[in-house]
Write a structure and sequence with these properties.
The complex is a heterodimer of chains A (about 325) and B (about 475). Chain A has about 325 residues and is mostly helical. Chain A is about 60% helix and about 0% strand. Chain A is globular. Chain B is mainly alpha-helical. Classes of the chains: A mainly alpha (about 325), B mainly alpha (about 475).
Chain lengths: ~325, ~475
C-alpha cells in the first residue's frame, strides 16, 4: 500500500515537473507569458487586466474547474491501477519487430547517418501520433458508444490548462492504448530496419516536436485566451483559438477542429474551421445538466449509464424489427 | 560473516595456524563437529571428488576437439577414460599451468581417485535431444560423435560437439547432482543425519558433506566473497593478472581444490560482470550461511527449525543457479540471432560462408547445451521446456532451410524441411522473451533488439489520461 501511495505521489508531482507533460511548470509559464504579451500587445489590455484575466479566482475556483481537479486526482488513482494491466507498448514493439522477420532481413535499412535516422524516427512518430490523435478524437465525437465518455471533457464550462485532465477513465484507457499502439508499432518497425542506429531527438527528455508545441503555448488551447494565427498558418497549425471553437456549445461549431498540433488532418477530413477576430464562445455541451455536470460521481457514472441505455435501446430496436419485419428499416430509429 | 567458535578463534590467535583464510567470508575452515571424533583433522570441509569431476569435464572438453577424422577410435578411448573410466594416472588436460598462472595439480589423482562423470550423469529422459535418451546416454552419444568428426564439428548437421558435450555435461552432472540430489532429498532428516559421519571413518557429518559436495559442484573458489565477478571470470580463464587474487594462501600456485573457478560458477561470474546481476555472491553466500548453520549444530541432529532454514538457503541456491543457466541460454540465443544475420549478409554478398557457419554452430551448441542443462534440475519445467525445445529444435536451421528431426537406428541424423532462417531468428527472439518471462532474468546479455527497450524507455506511454 505504501509503495502504491508513493507511486501515486510521484506520478502527481511528475505531472508538473516533467518536460514530457503538457502542464510541465515551464510550459505553463511560457504559455502565460505568450498570453500576457498577446493580451497586452494585440488586444490592448493593461498588464493588470491581462493578469487578472489569466489568474482570476472566479475562473480557477469555479465549480467546473474544481471538477477538473477532482478528475485529475481520481483518474490518477484509477489509471495507476489499470495501466499496468493493459497491453504494453514494449510488447507491441517486440511483436512487430519479431513479425517483421517473416518478411525481411533485420537491420537492412539504408546506410544513412545516425542523425538522419534519428530525425526521421522523431518526425515519423510525431506525425503518426498526431494523425492518430485526430482520428481517435474524431471517433470519440462521431461514434455513439464513445461520445458519452468524451462528453465528460466537453462538459467543462470554463477552460484552464488543467481541463486536459477532465477525462473519463474509459477515454483515458483509449488514450493509453492509442499511444502504445502508435509508439510500439513505430519502435518495432524502425528498430527492425535500423537496429541500434535509431534514436529519438529530444529536448529535456521530450520529443523535439512536442517540446516545441508545448513550449509555444499549447496550454492556451484550454484557456479563454482566443489567441489565433493568421488564416494561412491556421491551415497547417491548430491555434489555441481553433481548439476553443471545438469546445464551443454553438451548433455551427460542432464536430470541428479535432486536430492537436497540425490542422492538416482536419483539412483533409473536411472538419477544419478558422477563427474570427473577436470571437466569443460559450463552452460546454448542448444538453448540459447545469451544476450537476460537475460532480465526480456523476462524471464517472453518467457516461456508463448513457452507453448502457444506448445498447439496450439498440438491442430493443433490433428485437422489435425481427418481430415486425414488414415495417420500414428505419422505423423507430432516432433521426 | 563466518563465525568461528570462540575456542577455535583463540587457538588460531595463540598458535597462528590456519592463517590462509583469516578474515572475510570463506567456504573454508569450518571445524570438525562430529561428536566423539578423536582423529587429527581440525577442519571438516571436503569436496575433492567434485573438483576432480570439474577437471575431468574440462579435460574431456579439451579432448573433444582433437579428432582429425582418422583417429576416431583413439580419441574416443581417451575421452571415455575421462567420461566413464576410473583408472589412476589420468593427466589433467585442462586447466593447466601457463606463464604467470601456475597450477598446483597436474594429475586427477592429486585431487581424488576413482572418479568419473558417467556414474553421476542424469538418468532421466532428455526430451530436448532426439532418440529418447537419458542424460548419460546423450553425453555418450555426443562423445562418440565428437570422436568421429574432425575437430569435433559436424558441418553437415551444424553440430559443435565441443560445446554441446561440455554444456550438457555441466547440467547432467554438476547441476543435477547439486540441486536434485544433495540440496534436495539428502537434506531430509532420514538421509545423512548430522549426528553421524557421512561414511564410516570420515571426520565430517552426513549433512556437512552433503552440503560441501553441492558447493563443490557449483565450482567457485573458497574465497569468492572477497573477489568480484570479473576476477572470478579471469581466474577461470587462467589470466596472469588474476593470479594474485586466485592464490589466496600466497603459496605461489593456484590450488584447484579451493582456489579455482569452474563450470556454472564461471558462468555466474560471466553474467554478473556486466553489473546487472549478483548470482555469484548470492549463491556463494547462501552456501556459506548454510554451512555455518550446520557447523553451529555442533554435530547434533538438525532441529525442524534448522532444517527449514537450511532448505531456505538451498532454495536460494537452486533458484539462482537455475537463473545462471537461463541467462546463458538467453545470451546464446542472442549470439545465434547475430550469426544468422551475418549468414544472410554473406549469402547476399557471395562471401565465404564457412567461418560464419562455424560460429553459428558453436553458438548453437552452447545454446542447446545450456537449454538441455536447464531441464536437468529435477524440476518439471512443463510448458516452458516444451516451448524451449520446439523453438530451438534438434539442430540449427541449416542452409536449404532444413533441420535435424530425429535419429535413425544407426545413430545417424535425419533431416527434413524446416522453417527458414528469418523465422528461426524470430524463434530466438521468442526464446529470450520466454526465458525473461519465466525466470525474471537480470543480466540479459546479447539482448536481441535491445534498442526496443531503450527507445521504449524514452517514449513512455501516457498513463495519466490527459486529453488533447
Amino acid at each position: 500500500m505504501s509503495d502504491f501511495l508513493a507511486q501515486l505521489l510521484e506520478s502527481l508531482l511528475g505531472t508538473f515537473s516533467s518536460p514530457e507533460k503538457r502542464v510541465f511548470v515551464g510550459f505553463l509559464l511560457s504559455a502565460w507569458l505568450i498570453a500576457v504579451v498577446w493580451l497586452v500587445w494585440r488586444q490592448g489590455q493593461s498588464l493588470k487586466d491581462a493578469l487578472r484575466q489569466l489568474f482570476s479566482r472566479k475562473l480557477w475556483w469555479s465549480r467546473t474547474a474544481r471538477a477538473d481537479y477532482k478528475l485529475l486526482l481520481a483518474n490518477r488513482l484509477v489509471l495507476l491501477l489499470i495501466a499496468p494491466r493493459l497491453l504494453s507498448q514494449l510488447a507491441i514493439a517486440t511483436f512487430v519487430f519479431q513479425s517483421m522477420h517473416q518478411v525481411g532481413l533485420p537491420d537492412s535499412g539504408p546506410d544513412w547517418p545516425p542523425a538522419l535516422i534519428a530525425f526521421l524516427f522523431t518526425l515519423w512518430i510525431f506525425l503518426l501520433d498526431d494523425c492518430s490523435r485526430y482520428l481517435l478524437h474524431r471517433w470519440m465525437h462521431t461514434w455513439p458508444v464513445l461520445w458519452p465518455f468524451h462528453r465528460v471533457h466537453h462538459s467543462a464550462t470554463r477552460l484552464t490548462p488543467l481541463t486536459i485532465f477532465r477525462t473519463h477513465p474509459v477515454e483515458g484507457v483509449l488514450f493509453i492504448l492509442r499511444t502504445a499502439l502508435v509508439q510500439g508499432l513505430s519502435i518495432g518497425l524502425f528498430v527492425f530496419f535500423f537496429g541500434d542506429r535509431v534514436d529519438l531527438l529530444t529536448v529535456l527528455g521530450a520529443n523535439l516536436f512536442l517540446f516545441a508545441f508545448n513550449a509555444l503555448g499549447a496550454n492556451l488551447r484550454h484557456s479563454e485566451i482566443p489567441l489565433r494565427y493568421p488564416r494561412g498558418l491556421e491551415r497547417w497549425l491548430m491555434s489555441p483559438a481553433q481548439h476553443q471553437l471545438h469546445h464551443s456549445i454553438a451548433p455551427e461549431h460542432h464536430h470541428c477542429n479535432f486536430g492537436v498540433v497540425l490542422s492538416v488532418w482536419d483539412r483533409l477530413g473536411g472538419s477544419l474551421q478558422h477563427t474570427t477576430a473577436g470571437q466569443s464562445i460559450r463552452y460546454g455541451v448542448p444538453d448540459q445538466r447545469g451544476e450537476a455536470e460537475h460532480g465526480l460521481v456523476g462524471l464517472y457514472w453518467q457516461p456508463c449509464r448513457r452507453v448502457f441505455d444506448l445498447v439496450v435501446r439498440r438491442i430493443g430496436v433490433a428485437r422489435w424489427r425481427r418481430r415486425h419485419r414488414d415495417y420500414p428499416a428505419d422505423y423507430g430509429m432516432e433521426p | 560473516m563466518k563465525r568461528l567458535p570462540l575456542a577455535t578463534a583463540l587457538s588460531v590467535a595463540l598458535f597462528g595456524t590456519s592463517a590462509a583464510y583469516a578474515g572475510g567470508d570463506f567456504y573454508a575452515d569450518f571445524p570438525v563437529t562430529l561428536q566423539g571424533y578423536q582423529g587429527d583433522e581440525s577442519h571438516s570441509v571436503s569436496y575433492p571428488g567434485q573438483i576432480a569431476r570439474h577437471v575431468l569435464h574440462d579435460s574431456l572438453k579439451k579432448l573433444s576437439g582433437r579428432s582429425t577424422g582418422d583417429n576416431a577410435a583413439e580419441i574416443k578411448a581417451q575421452m571415455m577414460a575421462y567420461f566413464k573410466g576410473d583408472a589412476e594416472g589420468r593427466a589433467i588436460l585442462a586447466p593447466t599451468s601457463k606463464a604467470g598462472f601456475e597450477i598446483k595439480q597436474d594429475q586427477v589423482d592429486q585431487l581424488s581417485k576413482g572418479k568419473n562423470l558417467a556414474d553421476k550423469a542424469y538418468k532421466g529422459a532428455v526430451p530436448g535431444w532426439p532418440g529418447n535418451m537419458s542424460g548419460e546416454e546423450v553425453l555418450a552419444f555426443m562423445l562418440d560423435k565428437a570422436a568421429n568428426n574432425q575437430g569435433g564439428y559436424d558441418s553437415v548437421n551444424g553440430m559443435d560437439y565441443i560445446q554441446l558435450l561440455s554444456k550438457t555435461a555441466m547440467g547432467a552432472v554438476f547441476y543435477n547432482q547439486a540441486v536434485d540430489v544433495y540440496l534436495d532429498e539428502r537434506l531430509e532428516a532420514d538421509r545423512y543425519p548430522n549426528d553421524q559421519p557421512y561414511k564410516k571413518g570420515r571426520h565430517y557429518t552426513g549433512k556437512e558433506h552433503v552440503w560441501d559436495e553441492a558447493f563443490g559442484y557449483f565450482g567457485v573458489p573458497a574465497h569468492t566473497m572477497n573477489l568480484d565477478a570479473k576476477t572470478v571470470y579471469a581466474i577461470t580463464k587462467g589470466k596472469p593478472e588474476a593470479f594474485k587474487a586466485a592464490d589466496a594462501n600466497g603459496d605461489g600456485v593456484v590450488d584447484l581444490l579451493t582456489e579455482m573457478a569452474f563450470a556454472h560458477g564461471y558462468y555466474a561470474a560471466a553474467a554478473d560482470k556486466g553489473g546487472k546481476s549478483n548470482y555469484l555472491k548470492t549463491i556463494t553466500q547462501a552456501f556459506i550461511d548454510g554451512r555455518q548453520l550446520i557447523a553451529d549444530a555442533q554435530g547434533e541432529v538438525l532441529t525442524d527449525a534448522q532444517r527449514a532454514r537450511l532448505k531456505a538457503y538451498a532454495d536460494t541456491i537452486k533458484s539462482n543457479w537455475e537463473k545462471v543457466i537461463a541467462e546463458a541460454v538467453y545470451k546464446y540465443a542472442g549470439s545465434v540471432y547475430q550469426d544468422l544475420k551475418k549468414i544472410e549478409i554473406v549469402i547476399e554478398t557471395n562471401g565465404d560462408i564457412g567461418p560464419v557457419m562455424r560460429d553459428y554452430a558453436k553458438h548453437w551448441g552452447e545454446l542447446k547445451g545450456f537449454a538441455l542443462a536447464l531441464q536437468m534440475g529435477g524440476k518439471d519445467l512443463g510448458a516452458t521446456a516444451l516451448q524451449l525445445n520446439r523453438l530451438i529444435g534438434f539442430s540449427p536451421v541449416l542452409l536449404g532451410n532444413t533441420q535435424v528431426t530425429g535419429i535413425d537406428a544407426n545413430g545417424d541424423y535425419i533431416q527434413a524441411k524446416s522453417i527458414d532462417m528469418g523465422a528461426y531468428m524470430g524463434n530466438m527472439i521468442q526464446v529470450q522473451a520466454l526465458l525473461d518471462e519465466q525466470f525474471g532474468l537480470a543480466a540479459r546479455s546479447n539482448q536481441i533488439g535491445d534498442s526496443l527497450s531503450a527507445l521504449n524507455a524514452k517514449l513512455k506511454s501516457k498513463e495519466t489520461g490527459e486529453n488533447d
